[in-house]
Amino acid sequence: MRQILHIFWKDARRFWPEILISLAITAAFARIYPVNWLPHDQFYSRGLFQYASQMQILANTLAGLLPASWWLLIARVIHAEALVGERQFWVTRPYEWPKLLAAKALFLAAFLYLPFLAAECALLGEGGFQPLSYLPGLLFNLLLLSGILIVPLVALATVTSTLVRMVLTLLGVAAVLAGVVFIGANSDIGAGGVSTPYGDRYSIPAVLVMCGSAIVLMYARRKVWFARMLLFSVPVVITVVAFSVPNAGMVETAYPLGADMAARTDVPIQFAVHADSQSKVEVSGDSRSDSVEVKIPLEATGVLIGHVVTVDDVMGLATDGRGVTHPLPWIAVYNHYYLHGDWLSSVDLKMKRAEYQALKGKPLTLKLSLALSEAKTEAVSRIALPAHDFAVPGFGNCAGAHGMSALMTSLGCWTALHGPPLTFVKANLESTPCGGKAALAQDDGSTPETDPGPDAAGMHATAWVGSLEHDPADFGLTSVWNTGVSLAEGSYYQTKYLCPGTLISFTRFGLVRRLRTVLTIPNFSLPEENKYSVQE
Amino acid sequence: MDNALAIERLSKQFGKTLALDQVSFAVPEGAIFALVGANGAGKTTLIRILMNIARPTEGRALVLGGNSEDLSGKGFCEIGYVSENQDLADWTTVGGMLDYFRPFYPAWDRELESRLVRQFDLPLKRRLKHLSRGMRMKAAFVSSLAYRPRMLVLDEPLSGLDPFVRDELIESLREQAAGTTVFLSSHDLAEIESFASHVGFLEEGRMLFSEPLPTLMGRFREVTVSGGIVPRPLPPEWLNLEPIEGGFRWIHSVYRGPDSEAEVRSLFPGAALRFAPMPLRSIFLAMARSGRMKKRAEGRAA
Question: Taking CB atoms and an 8 Å limit, are A93 and B104 in contact across chains?
Fold first, then answer.
C-alpha cells in the first residue's frame, strides 16, 4: 500500500496543473450545464435571460471539454511510467506492477471518477433530485463511462509512449469507428435496423474485458504488440458480432410468438389493414436510393382498458401468384401506440427497389409479423400547471414553456439518469391568451383510453414520451436528462395556449409482456411509388 | 565463490541480425567485470537482457541466481543500473529524484547518499533536465549506489565524460566495490585496467574470452624477433604477425612464461627475442585487429 500511495502522491504533485484544469472544467460543467433544462422563469429570476443562448453554448462546450480533460489526465499519468520503450527510468527500479497499476487506478478514482460523481450529484441536486436515492444509477453510469471512455483511453495510453502517439492512435481509432458506422448505416445486415430490449448489451462488457486484458497484459508483461493486436481486435470483434447476429434471431428471441394471446379470456389484440380515403397503402422513396418504404395503415382492437400496445419492429413476407416468397427484413417502428378503442397508426416496411418494381401492381399475399410490447397504467398524476417548475411522481420534474411565447404548447421536463418511463401526457390547451380570462381548465378525469375530444374549455392535446425499458442509468456526462413534451392536437392553424392552472395528466405505463403476432393480408397490391429526392 | 551472473548459450536475434551468438560466461560474486568490445559488438544488448529490458531469443542469463526474464519489482532492490541510454526522472530535481526513489529501497543508506552527493558536488535543487551530461551521470550513480546493491550494472558509464568526472566516478566505484559485483561495459580501457578484476571480450555477438584480468594480462605478450624465418603454418596463438625492420613482431595470446619463450626460441635459433607485457588497451586493439584480419581472410577464402 505504501508504494501505491507513494506513486500516487508523486503523480498528484507532478500533474497538479492537469488535475486543476480537469477539476475546473468539471466544476464549471456542474455549475453551468443546468441551463440546458433550467425553466425560463429561473433564467429571468437569475438575470441570465439575455445570456441564455451563450450559456447553453458554454454548457455544451464544457460537455465536450470534460472528456478532453480526462484524456489529457489519463495520457499524462499513464505515460509518467510509460510501458512502451526501453529507456524509461522506472523499468529497472523496484516497481511492482500490481502496485503501479493500483496507483494509476487510485489517481483516476481520486481526480476523475470522484469529481465526476460529485458533479453528477450536484447536477441531480440542481435538478431537484435527491442524489443518494440514485446511487446505484450513478455507479452504473460510472461503469458505463468506464466501458465507453475511460478504460479504452487507459488501454490506448498503455500501448503508446507519448501524447502525440496517442493522438495519432486515437485518430486511427476514430477513422476505424467511422468506417464501421458507415458500413453499418449502408448495410441491411446486422442488428442496427431493429429495436430490441437487448439492444447492445454485449459491446460494453466486451470492451471492458478486452481493454482490461490489454492493460493488465501491458503492466504485467509489457507485451506491446500483443496488447496492440488485442486492442485492434476490439472494434473488429464488435463489428463482426454486430453483423453476424441476425436481426430475425434477436427480435424473435425478445418477442416470443404470442401463442398465449389467443388463450386469453378477454378479447385478444387484433390488427387489420385500415384503408379509407384518408389512409391507404403508400410506397415512397428517394429516387437515388435502391430501396423504397411501404407504408401500411393498421388499426388495432382488443387493447385492454388502461393498457397500451406499441409496435416495436415489423417484418413482411410477400408471396406472389406463383408462390414465390419475398422477405422484407425486420425493421424498427417508432412512436406507434395503440390504446383501448379504435386507434389508427401505420408501419413502414423497407423493400429493395428492384423487388418492388417486379411486384408492383401484382396480387400478393402479405404476411406481417409485428413485434409488440404491451404495457399497463401504473400511475396517473393530474397537476394544475403551476407558474414554476413542478415534480411529477415517478416521472421527473417539469416546467411549462409559458412566458417565452404565447404560442408555446410544450413542457420542458428533466429526469434523473435516463429518459422518462413511457408516459402519456394530456392537457387542455386554452383557446384564449393566458391572463385574458381566468382560463383554468377543468380536469375531465379522463384517462387516455377515453378520448373526450375538444370541449368548451379548450382543446385536448396529447403527447407520448419515454420508453418502457430502462437500465439503472443511460450513459451520459450529465445525470439529468432533458425531455421536451410537445403537446399536439388536430389543428395546426389555431393558436393555442398552455396557461398556468391548465390541468395536465401524466399516465405512466409499465411493461406487461413482449410478444409477436402475425397478420396475413390477402389480395395485397403495391401501389405506384411517390418519388422524392433529398436535397443536399 | 558463487556466481553473481551466469550466462548460458545466450542468443538474441533482431530480424536477420544475430546480435548475440551463443554467449556463455560467468561473473563471480564480488568481481568487477569489464565487458569490452567494439561498437555494435552486442554489449548493450547483453546488458538489456540482464536487466530484463529485452528478452533472449535463446539461452538464459541468471542474475543473482534468478532468471533474467523473471527479474522485476523487488528483484531490483539488489541491483543498480546506470546507462547512458537510460532516461532519468527529468521532471524533478536531483533531491526530488532521491526523495522519490528512497522509499522503494529498504536498504537505502541516507548517510551514503549524503556523502555521495557531497563528493559529486550535486546541486540537489536543480532539475535533472537542466544538468550537464556528467552531472546527470553522477546523479544516476548516487541513485543506484545509495542502497548498496549486491550488483551494479553499468552500460558505458564513462563514455563522453571529461577526465575529471571520470576519475570521480571511478573513485566512487572503487569505494563501492567491496561487497558489490560490478558489471560494466566500456571503451575506457585505460581506466578499466586500473580497477577491473575480470574482463570479457565480445566481438560481433560472440564472447571471445572472459577471464580474470591478471590472467589475461599474463597470457598476452608482444613478441619481437630480429632475423629468422617465420614458420608456416603460423601457430594459432600468434596474432597480427607483421614484419618490422630487421625482423618480425606478433602478439602471443597464450604466453606461459619460460615454456612459451623456449618454444619461440627453438623456432628462431640465435635470434634476439623480446617478450613485452601489454596494457589492456593494446590487447583489446590486437584482438579487434586480429578479428578483422581473420574476417577478411575468411571473406577472401569464400
Answer: yes
